[in-house]
């Protein structure tokens, strides 16, 4: 069989395998997205003015770029301009904006790459608000740090903190949500709690008074899952019903003519909701049958229904029933289906949809995953970065390189050098996948990279 044909078949088979098992988890901030692939690597794209992409730069990215070289990431959470992530060893990491101490590393310095928060290795759950952060450890204890102007840290005062502080003494916290200046949480007994800013009723306790300590929302112990955004909160009860409270102007979430919902108000009558995520002016949700639904403002296409109009009540997006993970940025939507494929829609001013453009989308657009397994490091002795790239490939190594050959996926040589190089200019290359062949006196290394 022709050598080029063999290479092509190998590429197609590998691409199909990589494509089918791609994105594992996702989270979205104001104008950026972070994600973990099924190989445990961490990726990000979109707005990057505070380093929230984590690639040691402040340049926006419209395609996914890998953050570092580790492949042991398991959980993540995006705030407005900062991020949190947990590794498989239970350690907690953060990066991006740190003006209010929301990174929790004891400083107020922005971080362009992930930095570890403390030395604990028992973190289990994380959430990032606009400028504050929350985390639960394996002991069920709740911790908070960052901005605290409205008491959103829940520690009894309004003083910012750049290190984690425990919220009360309880050890039965289970899940958490965070908005602009308020926080919500579920305990393992199914009770719902909130604290922080309450001008729009986002604490759900029937008034508009801020609280610097957690207060219980109602008397029900049947709450199952929660989410929060700027000035509102949403939750699903164990009976599958969907509820909202807080800012509702102009009828983004419940079309009842009321601007502020001071207590949880049911959305429709359906009782088969499974998970919920909310953006600034819209929400998306999954039902038990794995169908995807959206409602609220669609001004940027974030409802993924092909329009820019406002929609209520919740309306199904396409006719597919294969969705498993969802996320909302402020004005955009992300969803992963059961094949591990990622789809996005909505505002794309900073490239946060990850499709290589900055054009808004009103329908779900797939984010390619051909780079799965194409990491900055393929061998312990050689690192190649950045990957993907649009100008230069840097080669860092501790060995004696005798020759470098670059080929496309069909095996055609597009560049060759018979001397050691630390950098190769690929700016003139067409977009696609290339193979970097590095020769030493006794070994050959093959490293794949993407030219954007």
UniProtKB/TrEMBL annotation:
GO cellular component entries: cytoplasm
All residue ranges annotated as the Secretion system C-terminal sorting domain in the record: 384-449
Ranges for domain RCC1-like: 123-370
InterPro entries in UniProt: Ran_GTPase-activating, RCC1-like_dom, RCC1/BLIP-II, Reg_chr_condens, Secre_tail
Keywords from the UniProt entry: Guanine-nucleotide releasing factor, Repeat, Signal
GO molecular function: guanyl-nucleotide exchange factor activity
PROSITE patterns in alphabetical order: RCC1_2, RCC1_3
Secretion signal span: 1-20
Name under which the protein is recorded: Putative secreted protein (Por secretion system target)
Naturally occurring in which organism (per UniProt): Winogradskyella eximia
């Amino acid at each position: 069989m022709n050598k080029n044909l063999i290479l092509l078949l190998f590429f197609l088979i590998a691409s199909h395998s990589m494509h089918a098992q791609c994105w594992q988890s996702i989270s979205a901030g104001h104008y950026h997205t972070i994600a973990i692939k099924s190989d445990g690597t961490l990726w990000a794209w979109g707005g990057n003015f505070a380093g929230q992409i984590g690639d040691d730069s402040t340049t926006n990215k419209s395609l996914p770029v890998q953050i570092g070289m580790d492949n042991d990431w398991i959980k993540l959470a995006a705030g407005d301009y900062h991020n949190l992530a947990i590794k498989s060893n239970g350690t907690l990491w953060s990066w991006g904006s740190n003006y209010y101490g929301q990174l929790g590393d004891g400083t107020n310095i922005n971080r362009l790459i992930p930095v570890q928060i403390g030395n604990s290795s028992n973190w289990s759950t994380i959430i990032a608000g606009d400028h504050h952060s929350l985390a639960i450890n394996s002991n069920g204890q709740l911790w908070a740090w960052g901005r605290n102007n409205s008491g959103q840290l829940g520690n009894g005062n309004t003083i910012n903190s750049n290190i984690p502080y425990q919220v009360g003494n309880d050890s039965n916290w289970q899940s958490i949500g965070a908005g602009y200046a308020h926080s919500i949480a579920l305990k393992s007994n199914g009770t719902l709690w909130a604290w922080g800013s309450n001008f729009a009723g986002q604490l759900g306790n029937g008034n508009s008074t801020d609280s610097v300590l957690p207060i219980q929302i109602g008397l029900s112990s049947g709450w199952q899952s929660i989410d929060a955004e700027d000035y509102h909160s949403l939750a699903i009860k164990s009976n599958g019903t969907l509820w909202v409270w807080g800012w509702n102007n102009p009828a983004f979430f419940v079309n009842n003519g009321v601007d502020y919902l001071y207590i949880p108000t049911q959305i429709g009558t359906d009782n088969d909701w499974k998970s919920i995520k909310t953006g600034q002016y819209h929400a998306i949700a999954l039902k038990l049958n794995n169908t995807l639904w959206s409602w609220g403002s669609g001004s940027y296409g974030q409802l993924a229904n092909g329009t820019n109009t406002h929609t209520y009540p919740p309306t199904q997006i396409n006719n597919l029933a294969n969705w498993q993970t969802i996320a909302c940025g402020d004005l955009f939507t992300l969803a992963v289906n059961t094949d591990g494929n990622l789809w996005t829609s909505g505002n794309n001013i900073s490239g946060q949809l990850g499709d290589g453009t900055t054009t808004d989308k009103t329908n779900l657009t797939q984010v390619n995953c051909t780079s799965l397994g194409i990491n900055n490091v393929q061998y312990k002795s050689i690192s190649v970065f950045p990957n993907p790239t649009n100008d230069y490939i840097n080669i860092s190594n501790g060995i004696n390189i005798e020759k470098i050959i670059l080929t496309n996926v069909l095996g055609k040589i597009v560049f060759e050098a018979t001397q050691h190089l630390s950098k190769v200019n690929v700016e003139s290359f067409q977009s696609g996948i290339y193979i970097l062949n590095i020769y030493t006196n006794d070994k050959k290394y093959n490293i794949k990279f993407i030219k954007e």
